[in-house]
Amino acid sequence: MRITVIGCSGSFPGPDSPASCYLVQAGDFALLLDLGSGALGALQRHIGLYDIDAILFTHLHADHCLDLCGYWVARRYAPDGLKPRIPVYGPCGVAARMARAYDLDPEPGMSEAFDFRTLSPGSFQIGPFTVTAARMRHPVEAYGFRVDHGDASIAYSGDTGKCDELVDLAQGVDLLLAEASFVERPGLPDDLHLTARQAGEHAARADAKRLVLTHLVPWNDNDNSLAEAKASGYRGHIELASQGAVYDV
């Protein structure tokens, strides 16, 4: 299983990266985890525009889903005609939300290009992957994902505050992509984002083999975030996500 970081900037695209998007591949199957602001352009450096087989949205904030608008245009109006529908999994209301984002009528919305499916907690099959979705702690309906393929496993937090469900989801994974949007300071909310230290603590409790800090907000000092994570008590390998980074697990 190969994971490519397409975008890892938190909340909005930064100078070095689009917002959240990860390409997960096994064999000839390609799955996207999120498709946030600015990600569609960078995605084309790594895979053909029509070689995506399925998309999973953690939640429906723009930095995690908005580039589906451009992708709808690419699939709906391709020069050789409408491309086959691919599944797009998201929280309740995903089809209507994306139609509004492009100012489309709800019917058909984007359904000519995408087969929208509503997420719920639990495990299901997407191509060669077993995907487990779990609710995270965020002001809107939001999910984290575990993706298993053979003996390999990854987990992706999406956006979450401190959350036992993330620890359960990530038990023993080879790679945990965990957001680290906040820098430690007094008065931080518990239900919005993780600090890098909290990401490390979650990784330690989950016994994750490797931690990659992501959803890195452009105005933060990423070196400081890395230092905070390394002081968390987690003993595995920790690094910062970067656009174009590739992980084989």
List keywords for this structure.
7 helices, alpha/beta, 249 residues, 14 strands, 7-stranded mixed sheet, Metallo-beta-lactamase, Chain A, 29% strand
Overview of the structural elements:
- With 249 residues, the chain is an alpha/beta fold.
- It has one domain: Ribonuclease Z/Hydroxyacylglutathione hydrolase-like (Metallo-beta-lactamase, Chain A, 4-Layer Sandwich), CATH 3.60.15.
- It has 7 helices and 14 strands.
- The strands form 2 sheets. Strands 6-5-4-3-2-1-14 form a 7-stranded mixed β-sheet. It has a 7-stranded mixed β-sheet with strand order 7-8-9-10-11-12-13.
- The termini are close together.
- CATH architectural name: 4-Layer Sandwich
Q: Round the Cα radius of gyration to an integer and report it.
A: 17 Å
The 3D shape can be described as globular
Order of helices and strands: EEEHEHHEHEEEEEHEHEHEE
Spans of at least 5 consecutive residues whose pLDDT stays below 50 are none
Q: DSSP helix count?
A: 7
Percent in strands:
25-35%
CATH class: Alpha Beta
Q: Can you give the helix content as a percent range?
A: 10-25%
Separation, N- and C-terminal Cα atoms:
5 Å
For this structure, what is the CATH homologous superfamily? Ribonuclease Z/Hydroxyacylglutathione hydrolase-like
- The name of the CATH topology is Metallo-beta-lactamase, Chain A
* Class derived from helix and strand content: alpha/beta
Question: Summarize this, please?
Answer:
By secondary structure, this protein is α/β, with parallel strands linked by helices.
